[in-house]
Amino acid sequence: DQQVKQNSPSLSVQEGRISILNCDYTNSMFDYFLWYKKYPAEGPTFLISISSIKDKNEDGRFTVFLNKSAKHLSLHIVPSQPGDSAVYFCAVTNAGGTSYGKLTFGQGTILTVHP
Amino acid sequence: EAQVTQNPRYLITVTGKKLTVTCSQNMNHEYMSWYRQDPGLGLRQIYYSMNVEVTDKGDVPEGYKVSRKEKRNFPLILESPSPNQTSLYFCASSLSGTFLSNQPQHFGDGTRLSIL
Predict the structure, then answer these.
(1) Chain B residues 31-90 within an 8 A CB cutoff of chain A
(2) Does B108 touch chain A (CB under 8 A)?
(3) pLDDT tens for each residue of B62-82
(4) What are the 10-residue block averages of pLDDT along chain A, 115 residues in total?
(5) E-assigned strands of chain A?
């Protein structure tokens, strides 16, 4: 049973436009949420995160939004650039609970930004 | 250079032949973890270690063993590999297991295992 779902396997956007990647989770005990980016033949790299006490966190062109009541988070990239083309994974954890150290990932979304 | 090093990067082997994938980090991190990546399933955590001699099961530990005898190394052992363990494996480390933005996980470049 998938606790974290990224329902869009792929997303294609034009350079300069907004990219919105979505992620849904099922367990309300999750309290920390992360996004990772992965290029082919490389390991994932941390992009941005948000704690459950916030609903928005911004870092340059990247903003993560958290809607706890809907158990939904999203990553906005504005403006999108061709170099943003990669696989994006959301991940969730219960940092304050008994599953400290456990991290659950979504299936990933392939983002393609066209020049 | 701060890095997580996995070896081998590629391996093709046969069912039942024991193998070990090594993972080493040079950042003095306490936390280390193994993941596997499969199409349509994303990344799934196999085992993690909060510190030396402390290991815990992730979501898919069956068929795998780990050990953490020293801080820098966290080998993944497949005692009797089977074809369903064919996958892309990633090792990662971080200062702690909180995954906070100021203590992000650093991943190795991956090991592609094919079990025939």
Answers:
(1) 31, 33, 35, 40-45, 48, 50, 56, 58-59, 90
(2) yes
(3) 999 999 999 999 999 999 999
(4) 90 98 95 95 95 96 97 98 98 81 95 97
(5) 4-5, 10-14, 19-25, 32-38, 45-51, 56-59, 62-67, 72-77, 86-93, 104-105, 109-114
